[in-house]
Design brief:
Globin-like, 8 helices
């Protein structure tokens, strides 16, 4: 008897779905606020000097879709066009590295491990490098 192969699970599913992805986005910006003030200042800040709720929610929606979940970001904001949207922000090697450090801390905090962690470490580093423009 030949069985149909199970479809590969998406990173979105492997990290735990919507709530886990939203928690990852929140942990990412919390890490940024706590450890990378120069990077945080490149974002819209709230009255307390933290990355704004609007920025956090927008990134969370992006992350849901980018990891393979529902494409709510694209429905609401259109194609991400990451390079275009980051063109006015100077992303040099130091900012790229700061961004990766924040995501690493966030994934540590959220307990993302194993093969999905290895995959995400590589993919986040690739995207951060892709966005360098200075």
């Amino acid at each position: 008897m030949v069985r149909a192969a199970m479809p590969e699970r998406t990173p979105y599913e492997l990290v735990g779905g919507r709530e886990a992805t939203l928690a990852l986005a929140e942990a990412f910006y919390d890490a940024m606020d706590a450890t990378e003030p120069a990077l945080a200042k490149l974002h819209e800040l709230d009255d307390a000097g933290r990355v704004s709720r609007r920025s956090r929610d927008r990134f969370a929606l992006f992350l849901v879709g980018w990891l393979g979940g529902p494409q709510e970001y694209m429905e609401k904001h259109g194609h991400p066009r990451l390079r275009m949207r980051h063109a006015q922000v100077p992303v040099d090697e130091a900012m790229r590295d700061a961004w990766v450090r924040c995501m690493t801390l966030a994934m540590d905090q959220c307990g993302i491990t194993g093969p999905v962690r290895a995959h995400l470490d590589a993919r986040f580093a690739e995207v951060a490098t892709f966005l360098r423009n200075a």
